[in-house]
Amino acid sequence: MAWWKNRDQDRQPDEAAPAGDWRDDPRVARVAELTSHALELQRLGHIEQALSGAQEGVALGRQLVRAYPEPVHLQELAGMLYGLAGILNRVGRPEEAADVLAESLAAYRDVAGAGVGGIAPLIADVRARQASSLAHLGRITSAVVHADLAVAAYRELADGPDGAGHLADLVRVLGVNAQVLALAGDPDLACASAEAAIGTFTRNRAAFERMPQAAAYLTMLSSSCSLASRIHAANDRIERALAADDIAVRLTQQLVEYGGSGHRDLHAAAIARLGAHLLAADRAAAGAARIRESRAIDAAAADAELAEIQDTRGEADRFGLTLSYALRQAAELGVDGAGGVLDLTAADPGVEAVTPSTRCAPERVAARAEALGRVGLAALSPAPGEGYRIGVEAHLMFAALSERGAATPPFWTELLDRLLTEFGEDLLGTDVTDWRDRSVGSPSAT
Q1: Which of 84, 91, 207, 402 is in the most buried spot, having the most CB atoms within 10 Å?
Q2: CATH 1.25.40 fits 212-320, yes or no
């Protein structure tokens, strides 16, 4: 139970008992002052000072939640916790950030449960930030699930009556989702999410360029282009890699125009990547010219990018084992059911698959996941790597279902037991045992 549901249990001895209207409580004004000051300190780069102010604000916010039952205080606390987590991440304290975000998410969900409107995008923002934090902490399943639900929320909002106002956030969470999946999921799905972010931006470019945060979005989108390019190149889709590179060059050129020399390294890296992929496409003269151009802009950034790209074995290991490749290999080895499941990996008509739960219509996710999982287990003996990729993708689909409160089959537990035996937490993530326990208690779809 969240601590605020028993507001007296953590009341401090020096906390004044509530009396009169909460608007007259001096702590309300102090919280607003601390929050505003912390934001200004962050803008000026004084992160440690911002952290101190944010922590004081959260402490007072918790006092207000204990003192007054109105959802307004819980909502304000949730927002302060979200901001505090961002600062904690910036000072290298991701474990604390993850705990703070979990409290923020629980608070927002309770506010929504109290009937307060407009909370869905706030919950999605917390989930997106939590996804990034957890991915870098090795909590793979939880990271993917949070990103999955954040994307789902903003897709729904972007399709709604006020959709235009949510497009920027959709682009942002698609980019986060792509980075998380690149660390933990199917590379092709990561690529699809990155390209969905790029496509949404491209279709609404004029609106994005009028935003005060335009430079931040261009920076994020250049990262999405880089990710998509690397995944395409690792899977011998060089023309698609070149298309992503071309967009990255144009985006980073615009960044240079916005911010002067501060973004020249990104621009040089994008041009170098384009040059390297032109060489790979047997367009030697054009590739060499691009590489010379990149070095003239920022030689160190260009050479660093080229060195990373030249580690083709590392790129192939990281991005080459896609779900579709794993299923093709399993089918060639005669793994029972692999051929049939391979036919099902394409998204259903009208569904743009960018997360594990969007590979098919919602009502079919459990059955699709079980079919994948059974092929994954059968593939473990002849092809452990392919079996791992297939099995993990099934597990991620089950986990996304479970987080939504949907029923999952008992097979999910069987799948996780086998994957844990074969690979352990080092590959599956430090949170996989928690998810295994959760699978046992999950509502059963029998």
Answers
A1: 84
A2: yes
> Which 8-state DSSP code applies to residue 119?
-
What confidence tier does 205 reach under pLDDT thresholds 50, 70, 90? confident
Give one DSSP letter per residue of 198-263, joined into a string.
Answer: HHHHHHTHHHHHTSTTHHHHHHHHHHHHHHHHHHHHHTT-HHHHHHHHHHHHHHHHHHHHHHGGGG
pLDDT digits (tens, 9 = 90+) for 422-439: 999 888 888 999 999 999
Residues 194/186, Cβ–Cβ less than 8 Å: no
Q: Give the integer Cα–Cα distance in Å for 291 and 276.
A: 7
Q: Cα–Cα–Cα angle for 404, 166, 256, nearest 5°? A: 120
- Residue 8: phi and psi, rounded to 5, are -85, -15
Gap between the Cα atoms of 133 and 137, Å rounded: 6
Token pair recorded at residue 128: 């997106």
pLDDT at res. 444: 64
Rounded distance between C-alpha atoms, residue 40 and residue 47, angstroms? 10
Whole-angstrom Cα distance, residue 231 to residue 244? 10
Tell me the C-alpha distance between 292 and 271, whole Å. 9
State the distance between the two ends of the chain, measured CA to CA, in whole angstroms: 30
Closest CA to 141 of 391, 422, 358: 391
Listed in sequence order, the DSSP H helices in 235-348 are 238-259, 264-280, 284-310, 312-319, 323-332, 338-342
Give the C-alpha separation, 295 to 285, whole Å.
16
CATH fold for domain 1-117: 1.25.40
Closest C-alpha among 255, 189, 256, 253 to residue 227? 189
The single-letter code of the amino acid at 422 is: E
Give me the DSSP letters along 71-94. Answer: HHHHHHHHHHHHHHHHHHHHTT-H
Q: At what angle do helices 411-428 and 384-403 cross, to 10 degrees?
A: 110
Predicted pLDDT at 349 = 66
Q: Using 50, 70 and 90 to split pLDDT, how confident is the model at 445?
A: low
Residue 267 · residue 297 · CB < 8 Å: yes
CB 176, CB 150: distance < 8 Å? yes
Q: Is the pLDDT of residue 267 over 90?
A: yes
SS3 of 7, please?
coil
Question: In which residue ranges of the chain is CATH 1.25.40 found?
Answer: 1-117, 212-320
